[in-house]
Amino acid sequence: MSTNLSIASDSIEQSKSQRVYNYLRHRIRGLEIPPGAPLPKNEIALECGVSRAPVSEAIARLAAEGLVDIFPQNGSFVSPIRPQDIRESMFIRMALEVEAIKRVTELADASLLQRLEENIQAQSDALEEETLNLAMYDDLDEAFHAEIIAALDSPRTQHLLEAARVLLDRPRFLALPEDHRPEASYNEHRRIVDAMSTGDANLAAAALRVHLTMVASAIEVKLTQIEESNVQ
Question: Most buried among 64, 133, 195, 231, by the most CB within 10 A?
Fold first, then answer.
């Protein structure tokens, strides 16, 4: 009986930690908590209605992903956007995701294509709104790519891609409003799904490569601005 209670307690704590992690990551990704901002555990615990332990676990997880810097005796702070790390992550994402979509396209069934179509329609609906909700659109963008990678059924590949993507979230979010990027991204996603629908793995890979190249170009503009501001 005591063992079962211990397992249940651990599960509850993990659930709380996951909730805090999701909360913090979403706010960090959307730059609601800017680079360099402190992460006071007591305040976060009150905001999330949990004890300090789940907060500490969530912050440790974010630190492992490169989104938080922990300084013993000084506290935890949102990591700065480090251009070299971002460029390396983009390189890793390009290499892995382009190869992954080839395999997924070869295995794609009607169910996957339908889910991608539903995501594409949601993106289209979001763009029709009078004022685009950038955070919501960014969530749809993330879900679109996650749907494709999940279909690969390769947990290790998913983990590696997620580790690369998580560092790209902030500069990608910064770049999203620039030069009609949401509309361009939608069109690029549309071409990816169309290519996958043909069953041609190389065509799908080419469509994704174009999309990721455009994402990288938009991000690079922001990285250059960050580097220039750091020099001044």
Answer: 195
